[in-house]
Batch of 3 targets.
Target 1
Amino acid sequence: MLEREGALAFWLLVPTLALLTLFIAYPFVRGVWLSLTNAVVGEPGHFIGLRNFTKIFDDSIFRTAALNTFVYTGVTTVFKLALGLWLALLLNRHFRGKAWVRAFILLPFIIPTVLSTLAWKWMFDPTFSVFNWLFWKLSIINSRINWLGDPELAMASIMTVNVWRGVPFYAISLLAGLQTINPDLHEAAAIDGANRWQRFWHVTWPLLLPVTMVVVLFSIIQTFADFQLVYVLTGGGPANATHLFATYAYQIGIGTGLLSEGAAISLAMFPALLLVVVFQLWYIRRVENR
Amino acid sequence: MAEFDRRKFLQYSGAGLAGILASHQAPVFAQAGTVHWIKWNDFVPASDELLRKTILPEAGKALGLKINLETVNGNDLQPRVTSAIQSGTGPDLFMLFNNHPHLYAASAVNISDVAEAIGKAQGGYYKLCRSNTNDGNKFMSVPWAIIGGMIAYRKSWFEEVGYSKFPETWQQYHEAGKKLKAKGHPIGQTLGHTFGDAPTFSYPYLWSWGGKEVDEKGKVVLDSKQTLESVKFMTAFWKDAHDEGGLAWDDTNNNRAFLSGTICATLNGASIYIETLRKPDQYKTDSGAPMKTDILHSPLPEGPAGRFGMHTFQSHMLMAYSKNQKGAKEFLKWMHDPKNFDAWFVSQKGFATPPTQVWEKHKMWNEDPVMAPYKVAGRLGLTPGYAGPANRKAAEVLTKYIITDMYAKAVQGMAPEAAVKWAHEEVSKVYNGA
Amino acid sequence: MIEGAKWKKWLWFYLPMGMFILALLFPFYWMLVTTVRPDSELYRPWNHPLYSPFWTSHPTLEHVKNLLYETLFGVWMWNTMFIALAATLISLFCGVIAGYALARLKFRYAGLLGTAIFITYLVPQTLLFIPLADIIRDYRIGDTPWALILTYPTFLIPFCTWLMMGYFKTIPKELEECARIDGATRWQAMLYIVFPIAVPGILSAGIFAFTLSWNEFIYALVFLSSPEQKTVPVGVVSELIRGDVFFWGPLMAGALIGSVPVAIVYSFFVEYYVTGMTGSVKG
């Protein structure tokens, strides 16, 4: 019976499908239903249609969180890509201790985000910050830099930590991609008179594009739904300036107990993410078929 | 039917595995004959230690129960309540702040029998205790304590800029603060989303200018000339006299800043002073004297409409999902018995004021004059939602930090009119259910 | 290699590389220094004349002791380890066989199912945690490790599946076909021929899943409440940030020691982890 490919495939997929149906598909449907009610903690509420959605679109904090999420994702992705690529190019050379370096630099990505973010929070502390000390000693500043208390600086801070965490992932993945590029191609181009920059742009980059797009896709999905980093570093503050979709949904849903509104906020995240992903997949397919 | 079988299957296999696991795990909190009590991490750590080492074991022996105490960061209590209610399991007794009991009323056990008995026996509750815990028909939680909020300030520094007595009005406070900030000792105040210091400043500040969220009839009246005045003053006051990092502070940052000598004054419970008493050698002034000799307390300054205060209030809710409601009630009765409550109250050194009037006569208040202002915190405090009742809607406004945010937005650059309008709209949405 | 003047090598290679390493590893050094720094030094403001950030002359183990004896840190470590291992095993089991099915077998819905599994990865956890709380309450696994062991696979399985798909695609079909010509059933060919060859891929997926489990936070935060059920990330954040008393010492100690198991496992399996990561990207 297991000889037929279809039958075997069915049984092999059953555990996965069962788990994902029970713990994602079914809750997803319930979550959508929840967003259409006025449930609060302890009270199931009743159907109210799209009123939660009009309420949150009217909510200036939600709009800020939405904008923040896009800015956060966009800016960090650009930096992670640029710095990750640079690091990958550096690592692509042969040097002593390469294996050690490659192993160590992945640490920011490996270590649980909450724990490493705590270290950053301590480094940014308004009264005890080591960065303030450093800049003060270098005479760059005269008074305290308010890393987490100034709204713009706070955004910059969370983006810094996110980039710090993500660069190793980009670097190692892109390095693997670089290593599949045949060095003969570079030699041929060099013989033809291309300089280093031209070689990169016309040989390396196009061949790297497929891997790059996949890395960027993964990274965008994870960054868009980021929760831990902001929760630990700023809790969404100061005065809601650094809220992302996920942290605001948590604050409204679990913090204030307005479950249905929290669900609506989370659901609002989904179409935007879906659009970004669909676009990327389409782009990847185009690149692969070139 | 299939669902029923599946559930049973999971239960049996889960139970079997759980049995294996249990041999490796620490004892589970929720068992018959135990009461799981969750409260905040007390800002006076000595009291939690006293509870764990002495009071709770005594209670256990007297009542034949095991009381398991869990302490968490104050700001985490609300998310914990929501998770517990939603997952149908969790601590039996939950400590709640201010008027939060109104938010979780549907999941609370009617505890009027215990609460009324305590009130009657101890000279009656303060008005604010009742409005926070009683919805007009029944008690949703049992009042526990009032954390008085006063301004703790450095006596010597204020004397240096010409104030031998603490500034009486906001204008004077502004002037003093400006001079002190120029000397590197700004005022420290949080305008962040933290349950204690932020609302206990922003609400009475608003009231002292004559602004309020609602009037006695429940109409939203936040957008008014008085409110606008208060916001405009705050903007200048913040820039001139405050440590601007305060926007990101929680309830502990101002303590740390004060104790390390970076700020000159802050609104707080008595924990700063109590900490300097605990470690007199660690906290010193610039001249080497122990800092405890340089700290005094004062209520908030007066505004055009008078002097107001709002104090963080704590009560305990017995959750409807609790499997040991009888035990929990017995414990509450025991704990509030003056014989037993006394030890806890003394360990707080005046940081917490009990919710009933009889405790004003306690001799502890006469021991340290620096703590004297805290004795009558209960009498002077008002509740959020003033001048309307402290009901569910007021609780929602409080928990969304709308009033605090109004000031936070203004000091971050939003035009005062816009900030007031924004806040008025947000409060209206809550009260009118838009 | 960079030919040419030595200074060029310094400018274009050593300097940037050094800066990267410094930037990426400094926070861990900071964790370490803070862990062993005594409280009296720890709370000096940054413009205090005696502020010495990079070392301490009086290292102390009091924070580590505080962490291990005064909190349930040991229990949290055990919980997290157990949950991560169990969730990884479940996810590997599901992911390996699902990956094989999607990579190797031809059947009508292969593409659709692959896409569906991908879509589940996009559903935000903050949408799911309230409905999941209901399910967890109904099955009475709230506040137990099982709440996490059964929900973690929701994001681990897609990863494992893709990884294994990519890996299986690199194994030549001829191997299976030879085995089947020799009389093996499809099932036997899969189990005895393909899977053993795929062991490195399975190890990669396992290590990756293990690290991701340690890193999970939201579900652990919402579904667990008793202190002795918590995982390390949740425990450190919720129980070491307390009241007014200063706990940065034990906090950094917790962060440091909490990172050690993952770092150790990772160090033994670096190659596998890297292969896993790049495999998932290529697949």
Note: The CA atoms of residues 134 and 140 of chain A lie 9 Å apart.
Target 2
Amino acid sequence: MTSVGDTAVQVAVAEHESLTRQAIRRFLRHRLAIIGLLVLAFVAAVAVFLPLAVRLDPTATDYGAIRQPPGPGHPLGADQSGRDVWARLVYGSRISLLVGFGAVALYLAIGTALGMIAGFLGGFADQLVMRATDTLLSIPILLLIIVFIAVVGPGLTSVIVVIALLGWPPTTRLVRAQLLSLREAEFVTAVRVVGVGNLGIVLRHLLPNIFGPLTVVATFGVAQAILLEASLSFLGLGVRPPVPSLGEMINAARAPSTLQGLPWVWLPPGIVIALLVLAVNFIGDGLRDALDPRSTRRA
Amino acid sequence: MRMHRSIVGAAVAVLIVGACQGASSPAASPSSSAAASASAGGSPAGSAGTAVLRVARLADAYNFFHPVEFQTGNQFQWYNCIFDTLVKVQDDSKTLTDDLAKTWDVSPDASVYTFHLASGVKWQDGQPFTADDLIYTATWGAQNYDAYKGFLPVWNQLKGAAGVLHTSKPLPGLKKIDDSTVEMTLEAPNSLFLVQLTDAANVIVPQHLLKDVTAANVEKVDFTLGKPGATIGTGPYKLTAFTPDQSLELTANPDYFKGAPKIPKIIFKIFADPSLAVAQLESGDLDLAFRVPPSEFDRLSALPNLNVLSAANPGIVRIVFRTEEAPWSDKRVRQAFYYAINRQGIVDQYYKGRAKVLINPPGFKEYDDLDKYAFNVDKAKQLLSDAGYSGQTFKLMYDQTFPDAAQVMPLIQADLQNAGIKVELVPLDTATYGKNYGSRQGWDGFIAVGGSEALTPNKSEQYFPKDGKHESGYTNPRIYELWAAARSTPDAAKQDESYHELAKILNEDVPQVNLYSPNLVMVSTKRLDGGFKVHLNERETFMNVETWTLQ
Amino acid sequence: MGAYFLRRILIAFVVLFGITLIAYTVLSLAPGDPVLARLDPEQLSRMTSAQVDQRRHELGLDQPIPIRYYHWLADVVQGNLGFSIVSGRPIAEEMGPRLLPSLSLLSFAVIVALVVGLPLGILSAVHQYGRSDYLLSAITIFLISTPTFVLGLVALYVFGVTLRVLPVGDLYTFGKERDILDRLAHLAMPGAILGLVNAAPLMRYTRASMVEVLSSDYVTTARAKGLAGRVVLVRHALRNALIPVITVLGYLVPDLVAGAVITETVFNWPGLGQLSVHAANDRDPALLMGVILIVGAAVLLSSIVADFAYSVVDPRIRYDQGR
């Protein structure tokens, strides 16, 4: 029994490794995903590192530069308060990425914890978690976010926390499903007989298995979170001034004179959000195709 | 496939049901009929010769029709259509014209007014209007004076008004001479009484409908809530539909005593977002708009079918301080704010000249000997250090819906920070702003926008309530003496002396920093004609609405 | 089967209960004294603290949250949804006139999503990896990634103001309430935007489903039997591919509702979405609860309907057989 179990484990481990390599190879062939990755990396690099190298002030006002079109001193022009659009674009991208990755990281943690609780403990805890999951998935997330923000008030932390508090269900479902199927797997029974503790099983076998699907969920989650932050800021329920936000910059376009007369104020943030979300979506597509063994995509 | 078609079928069915919302009008419960006929728009290519005037005033509106409730300029425009006052003013907002009072006599000392009421006036439900309605309105107004939440009526100026507060006693200063003559005696002489009477907080309401209404239940009766058939006035237009926060439909009153109005219907639209109103002006779905954002002036002026007016506005955007709390209690700190903010820059660069720098509260003359507080960051810093300002944060709250808030507040904050003042901006929704304003919580200063009705300095007294528990809390007994002195004399030169001294006091003590006065932009379709003219105080524009014509 | 759906409906009620409880609890935890939200500040400034306490007691605001929730629930069951703190009007009156506008917007959007998404998804699948497939994929991803409000704003200005082919905002032209064409013209832009944005995921899903079916055994068999391509397509592939699409439609409803919030705001469409933004901006708890209740119920109902549709269409699905 033991030797069969050993071999089974070894085979499982061996299969797993080459699967990873296969997945990476498939991903690298997905042209759009590579482009997405490059775009994301570029935007992130600029957003994170440029302010460290160059002096950029997104909140400095300048009466002389009010509504100035792109030109010397202001590569993308200035907005109605004389603030540099380029600087705001860079800092706004920071915020979008911060919200995107921050909220998702947070809810990955929450979701995994809850999924493990549900999977391990079973019974009542499992039921409770699953009901909560179903409940949250039944309602459009924007509506619930609006209710929460109405209570806690808008702001950067509010947005991140609220998105995290409401976005964990898909993660939980994934983790729990994996845990359940893991329990059934023969080699787990085998390993348990040998004496490896529950936690050991989890760490060694669960995590590698869910890593793939979780990455896909997380990636699309980042795209969704970025769009949510932009929408919330557009509605006036998101990040508060003076923190720059791409969504809030686009809000200015609701005034007809800005929409038609000051395109440099709202088109760049619109393009950047679309690019960011596009890039992340492509990456997600690539990951999903790469990890899905049934994928019919031609290499 | 079957199910697919069925889903589509179901969706189409719902769509058609939705489209037939108006067609399937259920037995008229007021709110559903309001829903059916409210919220109108225009045809894409611009309406040609409809009999409906579509109006919007791009400022906040509240949903009440009794003058005791909180109101804003929007409601004043509605009141002027549905109700009447004793007297009205012409478009210079000064010259009196008759309304429910056909003629009047004023005693030489301006303390006794006798009104001879117009004849043949009927309420919109057919009942005749008599002096009793005026007596009722004024008496109720004095008895419940402290229940008025918005603009205050004049009824408390009548003799003995203080004594009837919270009672049901008759008002001594109010005497009915006969069914069409009423004499009012004021507690103190007031040469501006007649002009004050034109304010829409003084509309005359029907006694036969409201005689059992008290301050406690007034908010709940149909008259106040705006129900067709219950909200009755003597005015040129009847309320025929009202959807709160959306639209108001008014239909001409053929029995109006000054003659039937020429425009059959008026729709007041309420816009949460002024941009849509601007778009509708362009597309021809809106005929008349007040307080259009000044940034749209250039685009709209270029359109062939619109008249665009940019009018100077006595209303001022200002910062009101909590003057009783340190360090804002030191007037040097407040003066520093004045020097720190580049008000001329805001006017020239942001408003492109379509605004003015004013250093007085609304209505005052810009006397030459007043300190202009020209932009000077060094002076600001000097004053701050003299006063010992040590970096306390100034919490500046404002209603985020006030026009240009998002663009101007960063400019103000940046200027103040450059002078070393730490500023925290607190943008709030209208409801919370109102709450904080009333409870005086959550701010060290707030942005006030308004006073555009203040064409005389007299009206600015309301910004300095005597109890010190509202607004800036600044109470200098001298200023009230001066205001009363100005009112007590009809001599313009003497009035000016008082106002001049007032202006100097306020200019030095700086309970409020007066930032700038943005022009008001009004847009009307060229098809609107007849007696139509935008009043100097644009809220009063509807005072002669029955004479307007629309091609 | 009946038993299954009865159970689903019961579970839906429980879920609705859960959602409203969460929302109520969250709203009750808002900082600040809830009494201030229910009382007029003018009145409040004139009341002694004993009077304020009494008012608090009368309104039941001094009791623990579960009890207050219970009272709210009891009121709802009797048809009383409370009052708006801003307008003072009953919630039902605030929400009533907005139901049909939202419903008609959503219905129009569903039709647009189906009419655009399904055929294009099928087209993509049939011409998999062809040029049209890539083009459509690109457009799809563009639609998914660009924020709805950006698309809406641009459409508003191109079609509404610059070209003037469609009316801007509102439900209908005054005087033409019963003119269906007029109403449709007003519905066109907001509905199209909402529909197109949701057509994109529908298109992707249809394509994926179709691709899977087209490469399946029975299709290959049918082709081998010599049946014409189109016959194969319509009679066999399509029907089977569309089955999972129906469930996706059910899942699309929450997205549509969320999208409606943005769309209604951009186009000033007087529906529930716009109302919820106002309610959030005004911090109006009763109104927010009302919106959550109605929207929650509608979304849950739609998912049950979608499941029902799925079971009717796919003879292989039988819900009452355990697992």
Note: Residues 1-49 of chain B have pLDDT under 50 and may be disordered.
Target 3
Amino acid sequence: MQTSTLFIVILVLTLLAYYAGLKRARQRRDIETLQALPSHYGYMTAMLSAIPAALLLLGWSMFEPSYLDRQIVQHLPASVLEQSEDRVKLVVNNVHLLLAGGGTGEDTELRPAAEAYLEARRESRMLVTVLIVLLGLSGVVFALSRYLTRQHARRRVEAVVRLILMGCSAVAIFTTIGIVLSVLFEALRFFESVSIIDFVFGTSWSPQTAIRADQVGSSGSFGAVPLFVGTVLISLIAMLIAVPVGLMTAIYLSEYATTRFRSIAKPLLEVLAGIPTVVYGFFAALTVAPFIRSLGESVGLDVASESALAAGIVMGVMIIPFVSSLSDDVISAVPQAMRDGSLALGATRSETIKQVIIPAALPGIVGGVLLAASRAIGETMIVVMAAGLAARLTVNPLEAVTTVTVQIVTLLTGDQEFDSPKTLAAFALGLMLFVSTLLLNVIALHIVRRYREQYE
Amino acid sequence: MNNTEIVKRGLKKRYAREKRFRLYGRCAVLVGFIFLALLVVDITLKAMPAFGVTEIRLEIPLDRGSLDLPAEGAISEEMLSAVNYGGLIKKSLREAFPEVSSRKEKKLLYGLISSGAEFTLADRLRAEPSLVGSQPLEIWLKADDDVDTFFKLGSQTSRIDERQIEMIAALEQSERIRVAFNTTFFTASDSREPEQAGIRGAIVGSFWTLLVTLLVSLPVGVAAAIYLEEFAPQNRLTDFIEININNLAAVPSIVFGLLGLAVFINFFGMPRSAPLVGGLVLSLMTLPTIIIASRAALKSVPPSIKEAALGIGASNMQVVFHHTLPLAMPGILTGSIIGMAQALGETAPLLMIGMVAFIVDVPGGIFDSATVLPVQIYLWSDSPERAFTALTAATILVLLAFLAVMNAIAIYLRKRFERRW
């Protein structure tokens, strides 16, 4: 049976088990001696039916494809099996094509493998259907047995629900582990073919690996320094825009603006944060970059059409609301008594802000700026659309530079062999990106938290 | 000179400084506003041409002879499919411009009409077979995208020939060319030809992807929030989970794409480009948002309600599911909608898992290859044809409209159900 049909089977059996358990508990003549509500008995039998069957279904649908592929490999002619692993994979794909009805006619030697596949699939589906029906019925059987009403059903049900809740919150841990393992694993494979020293300190980045070994430049070079410099350059431009503007906005809105102005201005500025980055990318590439280019030409400067400046400015604007709302929070958290004290001594408002509030809020502001920086480093779409592709080691903002994220996207979009150093390099870059943003975040959160303790 | 005089002397300068500082603040706020206005106006202006499409009126002879159909008898579907509609259009064009004779000029003439026009004509005839044999059919057919750009914007693009401009002028004089509302943009999917391209496929793809995201991240996120807020013991494991959630909220989105590629596609062998994988990746991304919003909502339910329920004998689990959760639901939904809006605008992780393919079909489910609105924007913004720029901007407007609606719903929910205890 199909996965979806089996799913419906489980659903029906679960409902059946629920009603059987409920009915059974209600039928007790001495119902007042039951330890839990009748519905709890229904939930208990339903869980007994649903959970094991659903786990089986999940496991089966995860592992069935690879099991069936192994069946194909076992029945391939020996001549195929002698070839390389990639070649075998290709043949397995051909078998799948044959099964889908797209055979080319010259693959008669694949027929036995295809038939073995069909046979194995029939068997495994039969087996799993029987098992699921049996497991699904277990709840119903339990409902009919005498043991049901002797249980404290509520406690059992609640223990299981609690486990499920806990499992859901552990998803966050699994996601982090998944990220670390996936980037680390592939990055380590990359460092087998390219030394980590060359990668971190090399100054030449040209990941084009040739198809034939004897082609010119076949090795490709993976020195990531130009990417790091490009990323830092664009992020720096962005921060140069976002930090002063964001900070001044926060100061004005929290210290000067009337409540009415604030209630209009704040949501409007937050719209900037809600606009998808791909929209900023479009704006940077089609409006800001040509504008800067023509501006540069009018004063006699040669500006690249994908200049770092354009991407940086637009990215800076995107981060403004981020900086301003984080700074706003810390500025508002500065106790009113400090303001009053300074004003009472005769300081003007700006002097109070500059000499009392900002120094008091500084750790929080720095934390916010670091968070903003980590966002700038990890930002992808703006730079993919508005920054360059060629890696050039320069700090001139008028030239085109490329960034880590741009290279990850260019290396991984398109149909490449997954195992080539080219695609693995993307994971090595991803590892660098993950580690650096993680560090920035940890430091920023640490600073923000310590600052908060000071005043609360 | 006493202190008062010293202070008084400096006052003017200090007040000037105060005024300047205030001005800087105003300017900073203004910079944000100006940029927002520029962005919206620029994109709206760029999008405008995409909502109109240039059409040319042609008279197509529909007698059986010119359709190559038998002179007598019923007309079957098959016979209609076999008609050379392209030929009919070309013939009609030649009749409209009898002076055109050389091969080169003919080619230019045929280039006026979109290559998809013959399908429009075929569909029309198949829908109304009774038209056959009657009067010649007057039909508005789409112009080629270069003609379209020229006619709407009036600018001289290099891809349009002098002779074609004359032809367009002649058409204009006889009122046989017009700009109509571009319905194709909403009803068609991606195409290599700008005048035949639309966003229906991308909208449906976004819908499937968001559906998966919602179905995964809402239950898991709410369950995690309930556990952390109501049940979790104060221990290292709980701390570790909280640190993880905070960090995940700040991990660059592209890294989630790498995770999806390595785990979902390469390890579990899920289909590339499918909304299933896209939705799973996006739900991992939105999970922190939903968990944090749900926790805040659960926390705002006053303890007196929980204590009252506990007091009359409810178990902890019953308190949560019968009282706390229903009361926190508006806050949870608001947070989830905002999380969904983020997911709708996300592009980078979807590029990693192959949702960038050129897909003409409307996806029929979560296993089909699909693309989503932001990725469609990215794909079209790369195209060299000028008409695609307008399409990109128009798609951006549609995307922004969806986001605005979602956020408006979230704000409405918050206003409508917000309760102060």
Note: The first strand of chain B starts at residue 52 and ends at 60.
